[in-house]
Amino acid sequence: MKRLLAALCLCSVTAVAHAEIAQKFGPYEVHYNALTTDELLPEVARAYKIERSKTRGMVTMSVLKQNEVGVLSPVPAKLTVYVTNLNQQLANVEMREIKEGTAIYYLGEFRVTPPDTLKFTATVEVAGEPRHELVFNQKFYR
């Protein structure tokens, strides 16, 4: 069921503010995206048991490793994600792993009260590798 990824890519194409972004750490790339869950198609939200709402956000992440010939493949990782709003309120975002065929990605939900800019801090751990941290901000509009 790659419907979620397809829906998120569609959201990314239709809303520049929600474009998927990637950060590199050696042979690894971490792709991430954050959006309000009301942007998901109803059938996608149902399939993944996600509540659609303007006050619910979702962050998606995937970790890919580049092989010797440059091909990226998904790898399992441990992700720890925190979100901070403009009022400096901190919340943990519980990430759940989704495996569909060869795809591996992670979803986490959080509360958001637009308009707001949330700061995401993520720690990415791949077995046997150094831990990496990435930080990104996402604006949410009414």
From TrEMBL:
Stretch forming the signal peptide: 1-19
Pfam families named in the record: DUF4426
KW Signal (keyword) present: yes
Span of domain DUF4426: 23-141
Coiled-coil annotated residue ranges, if any: none
InterPro entries with a match to the protein in the record: DUF4426
Annotated keywords: Signal
Protein's name in the database: DUF4426 domain-containing protein
Species of the source: Thiobacillus denitrificans
